[in-house]
Specification:
The structure holds 2 protein chains of 2 kinds. Chain A is mostly helical. Chain A has helices at 2-12, 15-33, 39-51, 55-80, 89-100, 104-138, 142-159, 164-179, 204-222, 244-252, 255-270, 276-290, 302-326, 332-343, 352-355, 357-381, 384-388, 393-412, 415-433, 439-461, 467-470, 472-498, and strands at residues 181-182, 189-190. Chain A has a two-stranded antiparallel sheet. Classes of the chains: A mainly alpha, B mainly alpha. The interface between A and B is large, with 61 and 65 residues.
């Protein structure tokens, strides 16, 4: 295994892989630092570039974006007190007070090195666990797959922040989109109303780009009329000089905190379609609960930064496990990566690691190297990133939309995909305005075909529907799904009793 | 009683799911496969209909529980007009793309969207706007067509 990893590292260290990886990491850091630009958006922007690259180059660039993005948000979170990405929300709680208290360098580098260690621990987990998990997944029959997908959807719908029932409805919409077009077994056209345009169904990537990119950009444009809250600006040129040995000592001197936050991050990452925005909040919450002085959280203590930043990078490793072992994306970012793999004709799933070892270990290597590059980029450019946040939406929005259009068009060189992009752009924006969470929809969209194929396959193999419940793994997964729904309903009722729902859309 | 946002959305999705559910029974049966192509869509559509209906009921109950004359919480001002305009500009871009070709249409699109999002006032700002529009088009074109060999739309009017 380590021989393969060494080989992967040597491969990625070659210029033709190192350059895309570096570019990806840099763009990820920048995208993560830009408030209002999420990692999902950054990876969507980078997608069309990967069409022209070879698979590993493309995946290395995307891995770089993913790792860099998780770290990029922290600089802005510490210096300006606004999270650059949702995955840096909890970093602002202690990072900003610490920076304002006169130690901006310590805040940023606590975050950067925590990201580094959390990410590497996540990488270790990724390398050790993906193979064995894939081996388990190979034993799965159609019943188990079907039940696994149902569990994934139940969990994601349950985690929707606004409303559980909207989460479920959102899932249903995603599933329905995949039903339109020809059926996967007998190629019978379904719900096409005789239209040539939708006879082939809706291509996955344009739908995803449309829904995410437009929902995000249009929500940003909406706020253009809002007078801005006065920006919390630090001294013009804050000094970020700090003793790295001391900062690393501070982090490694709290091994339990680091490990626990990392584990939280990994677990959230492994669960489908949740992502970094949940990981950092949960890890911060956990750190506070386990702390001997919870009242000091939020005043600028290192624990808060360590918890948030180590978890959000570990989360990336966890998400990569799910995509590589099961072929289920851990979040919207890995969904785009999955789409990019499909374009290059690579089937993700339990056979991926054994059939494409060069690619799999190349991704591992890229993941590890991206962390080194990320630290390097922050060391050189942390102050420069304050300038980046001044890029105005008026410039950013058209450029991002152009890249989205290229991403859709270049899929198969037809305008049809571009029209799909706009249709779902409008639809996605409407859904966000209606308070519908997008993550369950995307998961439904990704899993739809597979759910149907496995369901029909199971029925064709044996027409006893009870097998879904009586086969131990399948039954166990369905039980977990039922429990997850019950838990979500219970939590929702308790939550509703206490507070009004928060309507901030989550990308 | 006035319908809430959720009831409205729920009604739309309920209507869509019921209409498609009726349609699904018209799908042909396949030999060899015990369940036809309509089997799985029906499960999805029934699921959708049930969740939509629940959403409507939930919304109606929540509205009944609340006194009707509670003033809505002050919403921050939103630039919805700008959003609508932005969507129109994107739509125009997509119409013009296959006619004018990528290079020209992109310059127009980037310039137009920038101008409505932040109207330039001085000639200098107009120059920056134009430079960004032309730059975006030129750089993406060169990178994608020349370096990555990703083809971009040609214009049927301009042949360029």
């Amino acid at each position: 295994m380590f021989e393969l990893l060494g080989h992967g590292l040597l491969t990625v260290l070659q210029w033709n892989y190192l350059v895309p990886l570096f570019a990806g990491t840099l763009i990820g850091v920048i995208g993560g630092a830009l408030p209002g630009v999420t990692i999902t958006m950054t990876i969507i922007v980078i997608l069309p570039f990967t069409y022209g690259l070879d698979p590993l180059q493309g995946l290395a660039a995307m891995t770089g974006v993913y790792v860099g993005g998780s770290a990029g948000g922290l600089v802005i979170a510490c210096l300006l007190g606004i999270p650059g990405t949702p995955s840096a929300i909890a970093t602002t709680f202690d990072g900003f007070p610490m920076a304002r208290g006169g130690a901006p360098g310590r805040a940023i580098w606590l975050g950067a090195w925590s990201s580094f260690f959390g990410g590497l621990l996540g990488g270790l987990f990724l390398i050790l666990v993906t193979g064995p998990l894939a081996a388990i997944a190979l034993e799965f029959g159609p019943w188990e797959y079907f039940s696994l997908f149902v569990l994934a959807m139940a969990m994601v719908a349950g985690l929707a922040e606004s409303s559980f029932i909207k989460g479920l409805l959102s899932t249903a919409i995603g599933l329905l989109i995949t039903v339109i077009g020809t059926d996967p077994i007998g190629s019978v056209p379904r719900f096409t109303f005789g239209s040539e345009f939708i006879s082939g169904g809706f291509p996955f990537l344009p739908v995803l780009i449309g829904i995410f990119a437009f929902a995000q950009i249009m929500s940003d444009i909406e706020k253009l009329g809002v007078p801005k809250t006065p920006e919390a600006v630090l001294a013009a040129q804050p000094s970020l000089k700090v003793s790295h040995v001391k900062v690393i000592g501070e982090i490694l001197g709290r091994p339990f905190l680091l490990l626990w936050s990392t584990i939280v991050g990994i677990l959230i990452g492994v669960l489908p379609a949740i992502g970094g925005s949940a990981a950092n909040m949960l890890a911060y919450d956990q750190a506070k609960k386990f702390s001997r002085h919870p009242e000091r959280f939020g005043t600028g203590i290192p624990e808060g930064i360590i918890a948030s930043e180590s978890s959000n990078n570990a989360n990336v490793g966890g998400s990569l496990v799910t995509i590589m072992a099961f072929g289920i994306p851990g979040d919207a970012v890995t969904a785009v990566m999955l789409g990019a793999m499909t374009i290059h004709g690579i089937q993700s799933g339990p056979l991926f690691v054994s059939q494409q070892p060069a690619l799999a270990y190349g991704i591992y290597a890229a993941y590890i190297l991206a962390h080194l590059l990320m630290v390097l980029i922050l060391a050189v450019g942390a102050l420069f990133m304050l300038q980046i946040t001044r890029v105005r939406l008026a410039v950013l929005a058209p450029v991002v939309l152009v890249l989205c259009v290229i991403g859709a068009y270049a899929l198969n060189n037809t305008m049809q995909s571009v029209y799909v992009l706009l249709i779902f752009g409008v639809f996605g924006y409407a859904l966000v305005k209606g308070g519908f969470p997008l993550a369950p929809l995307i998961l439904g969209l990704i899993l739809g075909d597979q759910i149907e194929i496995n369901l029909i396959r199971a029925i064709m193999t044996d027409d006893n529907p009870l097998l879904f419940f009586t086969r131990p793994i399948s039954g166990g997964l369905l039980l977990c799904a039922a429990l997850s729904v019950a838990l979500a309903v219970w939590q929702h009722m308790r939550h509703q009793a206490r507070t009004a729902p928060d309507e901030a859309p989550d990308f | 009683m006035r319908l809430g946002r959720d009831s409205f959305a729920g009604l739309i999705f309920l209507a869509v799911s019921l209409a498609l559910l009726v349609q699904s029974f018209g799908l042909p049966q396949l030999p060899l496969v015990p369940v036809g192509p309509g089997f799985y869509p029906r499960i999805v559509l029934i699921f959708m209909a049930v969740t939509s209906a629940t959403l409507i009921v939930q919304d109606l109950l929540a509205r009944r529980a609340e006194p009707a004359d509670v003033p809505a919480p002050a919403q921050p001002q939103r630039a919805y007009g700008l959003v609508a305009l932005a969507f129109v500009i994107v739509a125009l871009y997509l119409v013009l793309l296959p006619l004018l070709g990528y290079r020209i249409a992109t310059v127009l699109f980037v310039a137009a969207l920038q101008a409505i999002l932040e109207k330039p006032t001085t000639w200098r700002q107009w120059a920056v706007l134009a430079a960004i529009a032309i730059g975006t088009s030129a750089v993406t074109y060169l990178v994608f067509e020349r370096y990555l060999s990703v083809l971009l739309p040609r214009g049927s009017w301009t042949n360029w």
